[in-house]
Structures are given as structure tokens and as C-alpha cells.
Description:
The chain is of the alpha/beta class and about 250 residues long. It has helices spanning about 20-30, 40-55, 70-85, 105-135, 155-175, 195, 205-210, 220-235, and strands at about 10-15, 35-40, 60-65, 90, 140-145, 180-190, 245. It is about 45% helix and about 15% strand.
Amino acid sequence: xxxxxxxxxxxxxxxxxxxxxxxxxxxxxxxxxxxxxxxxxxxxxxxxxxxxxxxxxxxxxxxxxxxxxxxxxxxxxxxxxxxxxxxxxxxxxxxxxxxxxxxxxxxxxxxxxxxxxxxxxxxxxxxxxxxxxxxxxxxxxxxxxxxxxxxxxxxxxxxxxxxxxxxxxxxxxxxxxxxxxxxxxxxxxxxxxxxxxxxxxxxxxxxxxxxxxxxxxxxxxxxxxxxxxxxxxxxxxxxxxxxxxxxxxxxxxx
Length: 254
């Protein structure tokens, strides 16, 4: 165990089968928390959950399409039914679906990016806030990425959705504060994940170009992001809410 910050805590994580989500799940489980994992890939989800249980942790995987509200509701209910409560949630699922100049995009790409990256967070908050309130409060972290605070050409729908995540985060932070629920947004730079490898970082030249956008001169490891997420979801940050917090190698400092 790293420490026991999450002893007796129940934490829900979406997009949990690889990359940041899986790293956060492993970190929180290592710190004593029970993790409830939601993602579309059942085989990968079962493997992550079994890995955590084999290491002595507590984990439940629930197949979840975060663009379907009934799935998101079932995920929150599964946490309460299995472990009796919900103390924290990390809304992490997301991806870029539409690439190209705005005049060349079709409506399907626009809606796909908004549904996966913004509406899914809305669904999560709708069902996580009441569950956390019933447990006496807690923390929610929404992954907005660095494109939630800056622009980037050729991915306008994704940028719009992630900017929306920060606005949604701040609004719900104000609504939920009286219930002792903190809601913050994660502003992460490029991370060495399978999704990154399959997109702009698929070649050494692409990775080098993206690394150069970060003043530290590299992309991050999922474990670096996971340590920050665990901190923000823990009781060590009980006076932080409504904030967009960066761990991006200096990307947004330019």
C-alpha cells in the first residue's frame, strides 16, 4: 500500500480500462479505496478489476457506455449497492471523434464529440451528486484536458466540449457546495496512453512535435496524472472546489 488515504472510501471511475483511468484505479486501490470501474470494453474492464483484486484491492467493473444515461445511472447505483455508499467520482471517459476544419465537419462528428466528452459528464453529475450527498459529501473530478482552457485547430468539437466541461464543473460546484460536495476539473497535457499512441502520437515525429508543445519537453506518464487525481479526490483537498487544475508540463502557461 502507498498509504491509506482512501481507506473505507468508494470511488467511481469512468474510462477506466486503460491510460489515465486505469492508473487512477490502481493508485486509489493501492491506497485502500474500493474502485467501481465503468467503460464499454467488458473484457478489458474485467481484467483491470481482477488485477486489482489479485493485488489485495477491492474492485467492481460495470460495463458502461457513458453516452447512455441509463448506463451511467446503473454505474452509480452499482457502487452504492455493492459497497453501501459513494465517496468520490472521476469522470474521465473521452476521446476525439472529429478531425478537420470546422467548415469540413459533419453534424455526426460534432454531436459525437459533445456526447462523449460533455453530455457524459452531465449524466455523471446528475447521478453522482445525489449519491455523494447521501453519503455525507465527497469529491468529483471531471477530466477537461488542456483543451478545456486553450484552443487547437482541427478539433473544434472536442475543444468546445472540453471548455463546456469546465463551465459545467463550476456551475455544479456552486450547486453542490452546501452538500459538502467538491467538484473540480482536471487540466492535463498529453499523456502516454493507448489513445494517444493511436492518434497524433502514433509516430516518433508526432510524439516529438507534441512533446515540444510542453515546456518540460515531454509528455506525461499516466502514473503522474494518477497521483494528482488521487490527491484531488482525497480528503486532503477539502477546500478546493470549482477549480480547473493543471498538470500539463507547462502547456497552458504559454
